[in-house]
Write a structure and sequence with these properties.
The protein is of the alpha/beta class. It has 15 helices and 11 strands.
């Protein structure tokens, strides 16, 4: 096989472990793919090809026992340029941090490396993982946004630059770019992956996640990155029995474009035909204010985390970000505390909802296709509620819109039911007709 970049993450790892493939050959093929397409996609903020090949050669010299002990042995993984990497630039998409080289490494990157993975390069993030886009373009059509804030990670996986990548989500920053780029985006329950060593935006909401090209690969990667490695099993299998799903039209359903609505209905019909039980529901009432609660918490915390930096380098942040942080500074402590209490109430309500026997909630991941612009990253509000309450979420690509851009289906599971959500997603993925770029 000459096009090694097409290998799935788990398949590549198993070939390297068995000695059927060298990390050097695999890494060299990924670099060739990058050299062919990176000029258009621009997924990488930092990439040292010589370093990557040196680490791959080092992995190839390891004995068989070490290969077996490290599930990601010799596998290059993209890392969002929001995670600190000691001795390697971490600029976080901000002019204020241009040239910054930390002396510590983020927990999740350390876990990646301890599992044998290669920190291949730093993928582009939007400014401070907020809304102002950076240089990355959607590999399906470079006139379209790849989404954000994990723009480079989603684009790199979709383009075949890597089989897996790391990202973060504070609003919709894993799910939305994965949906726009036609790949799997998976965010475990809050706290399952450590956010320590990632530039903080909101300590209540920041949640690391992963990108891959199949549910099984997302699980395989995530299983090595959680605080307790038994939380996610490395080999996920589809549910044996068809799931019971709740197709939820959230309070922002009105934002869904006709193509996304049609795709959502098609997904419901297809899964029902496959045997799933799907109840179409609307959540309203207390959830109507969820987006305001999310914004209150996010900007209150972000403004205080950025206070010292802005006193020194306010001009190093965009006007858009400064305006949002100014809004956060004007939020009163009492309003913030009330928002945290309401968040807890929403978490309790959703726990009771899942007690009704649903395998997962299904909902659109975005308003529609990736917009034909690079001036913004799209609307994150279809993800906000699930990030606010810290539930595990995953998106699987299921179709294409009128412009030939990917459309997806978001699945949300009960708190800390990681393997059950992944098994449900794998069952649903089995019936998706979508074909990726790679």
């Amino acid at each position: 096989m000459t096009e090694l970049y097409k290998l799935g993450l788990r398949e590549a790892a198993l070939r390297i472990r068995s000695g059927k493939l060298t990390s050097t050959d695999y890494t060299r093929d990924l670099i060739a793919r990058i050299d062919a397409l990176e000029k258009g996609v621009q997924a990488w903020q930092w990439l040292d090809r010589a370093r990557a090949l040196e680490l791959a050669a080092r992995a190839d010299k390891a004995d068989s026992a070490m290969r077996v002990a490290h599930p990601l042995h010799g596998i290059p993984i993209g890392v969002k340029d929001l995670f600190y990497t000691a001795g390697i630039p971490t600029e976080m998409g901000c002019r204020a941090y241009a040239g910054y080289v930390p002396d510590v490494t983020a927990d999740v990157v350390l876990r990646l490396e301890s599992a044998g993975g290669i920190m291949f390069g730093k993928t582009v993030t939007t400014e401070a993982a907020f809304m102002v886009p950076s240089k990355t373009r959607n590999p399906w059509n470079i006139a379209h946004t790849p989404g954000g804030s994990s723009s480079g990670s989603a684009a790199a996986v979709a383009a075949g630059f890597v089989a897996g990548a790391l990202g973060t989500q504070t609003n919709g920053s894993v799910i939305r770019p994965a949906a726009f780029c036609g790949v799997i985006g998976y965010k475990p329950s809050f706290g399952q992956m450590s956010a320590r060593g990632a530039m903080p935006f909101s300590q209540t909401l920041d949640q690391p996640g992963v990108f891959a090209r199949s549910v099984a690969d997302a699980a395989f990667l995530a299983s090595s990155l959680t605080a307790q490695r038994t939380v996610i099993t490395p080999e996920v299998r589809p549910l044996r029995n068809a799931p019971k799903l709740a197709a939820v039209r959230s309070p922002v359903w009105y934002l869904a474009q006709p193509d996304q609505r049609m795709q959502f209905e098609a997904d419901i019909d297809r899964l029902r035909e496959a045997g799933a039980s799907v109840d179409v529901l609307e959540i309203a009432g207390e959830f109507d204010g969820a987006h305001k609660i999310h914004r209150t918490i996010m900007l209150f915390e972000a403004a205080r985390l950025a206070k010292n930096a802005r006193e020194i380098w306010r001009g190093g942040f965009s006007d858009y970000l400064n305006k949002a942080l100014d809004e956060g500074e004007n939020i009163r402590e009492a309003e913030y505390r009330d928002a945290l209490k309401m968040r807890t109430q929403l978490q309790q309500s959703l726990a009771e909802f899942f007690d009704r026997g649903y395998s997962a909630i299904m909902t659109p991941p975005a308003a529609g296709e990736a917009p034909a612009t690079r001036e913004n990253t799209g609307d994150p509000r279809f993800c906000s509620i699930w990030t606010l309450v810290g539930l595990p979420a995953i998106v699987i690509p299921t179709g294409k819109g009128p412009n030939g851009m990917p459309l997806g289906l978001q699945l949300i599971g009960a708190a800390e039911e990681e393997n059950y959500l992944l098994a449900t997603a794998a069952w649903c993925e089995r019936y998706s007709p979508f074909k990726g770029l790679v």
